[in-house]
Design brief:
Elements lengths: L1 H26 L24 E7 L2 H6 L1 H10 L2 E7 L2 H10 L6 E4 L5 H11 L3 E5 L5 H9 L4 E6 L3 H9 L1 H8 L4 E4 L2 H9 L7 E3 L15 H10 L7 E8 L3 H13 L5 E7 L5 H8 L4 E3 L12 E3 L6 H5 L4 E4 L13 H5 L4 E3 L7 H9 L4 E2 L3 H13 L1 H17 L3 H10 L3
Parallel strand pairs: 1-2, 1-4, 2-3, 4-5, 5-6, 6-7, 8-9, 8-12, 9-11, 10-11, 12-13, 13-14
Length: 425
């Protein structure tokens, strides 16, 4: 089976090069340690005496930030040295900034092709291999299995799209999932999907979503929140509406909502944090009619700013603490999948999102059941909901309190995941 994958990888990779090259140029930062992608991890120390080496692969920012509590636990436990690799340039930057003292080594994940993967494995030589969420790399997993290294999938989830694809190739899915020593499912729905795709029953563990345990790098005091608002150019008594991880089309909706709220004589300001910072030029054209500030140009805004564009990376959790209520992006058509509502809930920021939250279906179902969020069917309903939140302080307080309670009740996944890893350490 692995030989078929290797054979098909070459033409697929060649066809994908223009797309990924364009994306790398757009986002920037990919030149840093580019040799790692070909298995050229540099200056990798030899394994410590008597210590188990754990190789954790986290693709992008969300998975990387979800590891914070686990890395703390592994460091406190001792006896293990963590090699952390990531895929995106943004995640690599954040990993090096946040985890330099918690990890034995931080690098970039190799391209999942035989010579590159094998080269990286020969250098890293892990005793335990960990993948995060839904990223299944056949060559990487084959290397683990062939070397007798236990393989664990943490925070495991299976999107609608991936599930439909794997159902069409059941033999391949069963063989792939059979390589895992443990699959730590983030919720019951995903656990059932892995079961239906052929995962061994004795490898399935329901641990919950580790993202509930991750915290902002710094929790701001009331004084620090006021100072942050001042930095954004917002007044002390202004209402701050957050566009959290917005996608194409959602900024227009939020600007229209801002106009609608301000027409009611409410001093509301808009803090936009797009999911992809490289969309800044497109968004700048949308906000040019408003008194605005672009963070990458000038972090400190002039007083009276109505729209603040935070076109940087790794700051969403900190900036969320300046908000009074939020719209969570990638949830209005034609966008699908949704961005995480967990961070806003944890910080007690009332949430509005659209109908397309499939990536967080189970979390959203429970949020909605607890009446801790406002779900809307379309952009017009989103604007109406945001206006209601701006006008009703009691509604904001009720949603915030229920969301924080919901978040607290879902914590503990990281400790359960650590217990699973300890079986192999």
């Amino acid at each position: 089976m692995i030989w078929l994958y290797r054979l098909l990888f070459v033409p697929a990779f060649l066809l994908a090069i223009p797309y990924y090259a364009a994306r790398m140029l757009r986002r920037g930062g990919y030149a840093k340690d580019f040799s790692h992608r070909f298995g050229g991890q540099k200056n990798l120390p030899k394994p410590g005496r008597g210590k188990k080496r754990v190789w954790i692969q986290a693709v992008s920012v969300g998975e990387t930030e979800a590891l914070a509590s686990l890395l703390d636990m592994l460091a406190a436990r001792g006896g293990a040295e963590v090699v952390l690799t990531v895929t995106t340039s943004t995640a690599y930057k954040i990993a090096r900034e946040k985890y330099a003292e918690k990890c034995f080594y931080i690098g970039v994940f190799p391209i999942d092709f035989f010579p590159f993967s094998r080269r990286a494995w020969n250098k890293i030589k892990p005793d335990l291999c960990v993948l995060m969420e839904g990223e299944l790399w056949p060559e990487h997993m084959h290397q683990a299995k062939s070397r007798g290294v236990p393989l664990v999938l943490l925070n495991a989830r299976m999107s609608d799209r991936s599930f439909a694809r794997y159902l069409k190739i059941p033999y391949f899915a069963r063989r792939l999932l059979g390589k895992f020593s443990a699959i730590c499912a983030s919720n019951a729905l995903d656990m059932d999907r892995f079961r239906k795709l052929g995962a061994h029953e004795d490898t399935l563990v329901l641990t919950g979503n580790m993202k509930f345990d991750s915290k902002p790098a710094k929790t701001l005091s009331p004084e620090e929140k006021l100072a942050l608002r001042g930095e954004l150019g917002f007044g002390e008594d202004s209402l701050v509406m957050l566009g959290s991880s917005t996608w194409r089309g959602e900024e227009e909706m939020l600007l229209s909502a801002l106009d609608k709220i301000r027409a009611e004589k409410i001093d509301c300001r808009l803090l936009l944090v797009p999911r992809h910072a490289e969309r800044r030029e497109q968004i700048k054209r949308l906000i040019e009619a408003y008194p605005h500030c672009v963070r990458s140009v000038s972090p400190r805004a002039e007083r009276g700013t109505l729209v603040y564009l935070a076109d940087t990376t790794g700051e969403l959790r900190m900036l969320t603490q300046a908000a009074d209520f939020a719209f969570v992006g990638k949830s209005l058509p034609p966008n699908v999948g949704g961005q995480t509502p967990i961070d806003c809930a944890a910080l007690g920021v009332p949430i509005v999102y659209g109908p397309k939250m499939a990536n967080f279906r189970r979390a959203c179902e429970t949020l909605e059941r607890e009446n801790a969020v406002i779900k809307v069917p379309d952009a017009d309903a989103a604007k109406d909901a945001l206006l209601r939140l701006a006008k009703d302080a009691e509604l904001r307080a009720g949603l915030a309190g229920r969301a924080k309670k919901w978040h607290e009740s879902n914590r503990g996944a990281t400790e359960r995941a650590r217990e699973v890893l300890s079986r192999f350490l």
